[in-house]
Amino acid sequence: MRTAYSVQTVRAAERALMARLPEGALMQRAAAGLAAACADVLRRRGRVYGSRVVLLVGSGDNGGDALYAGARLARRGAGVRAVLTAPERAHEGGLAALRAAGGRIAEGADAWGGHIDLVVDGITGIGGRGGLRPGAAELVRALAATGAPLLAVDLPSGVEADTGEVLGDAVRADATVTFGTYKPGLLIDPAAERAGALHLVDIGLGPELPDTPDLEVLQYADVAALLPVPGAESDKYRRGVVGVVAGSARYPGAAVLAVSGALRGGAGAVRYVGPGAAAVIARHPETLVHAGPPSKAGRVQAWVVGPGLGDGTEAAEAVRDVLAAEVAVLVDADGLRLLDAGAVRARTAPTVLTPHAGEAAALLGVPREEVEAGRLAAVRELAARYRATVLLKGSTTLVAADDPGTPVRVNPTGTSWLATAGSGDVLSGLTGSLLAAGLAPRDAASAAAHLHGLAARHASDGSPVSAQDVAEAIPAAWRDVRA
Hints:
Layout: E1 2-4, H1 7-18, H2 25-44, E2 52-57, H3 60-75, E3 79-84, H4 92-100, E4 104-106, E5 118-122, H5 134-144, E6 150-153, E7 175-179, E8 197-201, E9 215-217, H6 220-226, H7 236-239, E10 241-245, H8 252-264, E11 269-273, H9 277-283, E12 288-290, E13 302-305, H10 313-323, E14 328-331, H11 334-338, H12 341-346, E15 351-353, H13 357-364, H14 368-373, H15 375-386, E16 389-392, E17 398-400, E18 408-410, H16 423-436, H17 441-460, H18 467-472, H19 474-482
Parallel strand pairs: 2-3, 2-5, 3-4, 5-6, 6-7, 7-8, 9-18, 10-11, 10-13, 11-12, 13-14, 14-15, 15-16
Antiparallel strand pairs: 1-9, 16-17, 17-18
């Protein structure tokens, strides 16, 4: 499992570790890891010896890391030039080390006046706030235009380390070398998109970090440990029965897709309630159908309500009926527009809300752009306001529990091919099946998002896919994580 910690927590851990180490040892550890990563990039482009490297150096420790790493590269025969964005506040020890190794200080983006093999971004560190200053932004643009790969030190300069927000001009890196632990901004868009490939350097910070991180990213083994596997005595009821209330005359396919996700997610049985019974049975004859209301459909361990439901009176009544159930309930799509916030907060059984950015904005009463720019704040606020587990869909899907002390989970398997009609309906059904199997809401939502993203990758193979393609690839994703 990957974990990420806030700047405040990282700073406290660094102070505790530095108190036990010789002066400067922590920076040297970081510089050694950074130099090794730079050397890997240079070797892939030819060789370290004779290569040309430009360091963009700001004030403070981030710039110091870049300078000491540059000194190491210079000692290996690389030509290294440092461009100082704040000359009067550059790290003195790092500057001395670079000069002693043969590196030089340059003026502006024409540090080499020609071919450049690598640019290293050490302008601002994790304490930076706001976008790049105009001069630094112009310098970054000029060097980006050379086509040289750009490697960021700890995180791309100009992004917000704690939130993933980008509040102005920011570096777009091909790779980022971060130290000690991941920072939230490296994992959450829009900042994560600018980080490129991530490389974590162990500087000994682990023992100083608290047990509970701010963010978690599940890996295959973590998801595999969550997924239910039927035993010898299992039957359809023990495996979990999920109820699906979805579809309408306008959106009949939503019912089929939600049921597809539920069946391929391992549900022992699916009970469908809604006007799309004929379409559902035609595609999935094993489905149990009922005319409604949901409370009369039979026993279920979890409900999924909302995909393609429409906004009529019957739809609103169905949402109210489901929310009154004493089992786990997932609300998606039209159900989110029809739910009563008070009814959600009053529930004693688990509730999962699965909005995209537009739906989240409507629930919070803010512009969509505010949600997209500050995804972490939005998902936390939704979970707290509705006392529910919230899966916020998007370029980076986030899962937040209603307990503020519980880490937010970030899904690492998303792909832009999921931006297609009906893929959210499949995710709802898949999550519902895991809720019915007995997974805790946060685990069900996290595992479902992980499988959903993997299924899209299986189905697409770099080409366009439909939501039904994604549903049919869920078993392959399941096999991946259990391999």
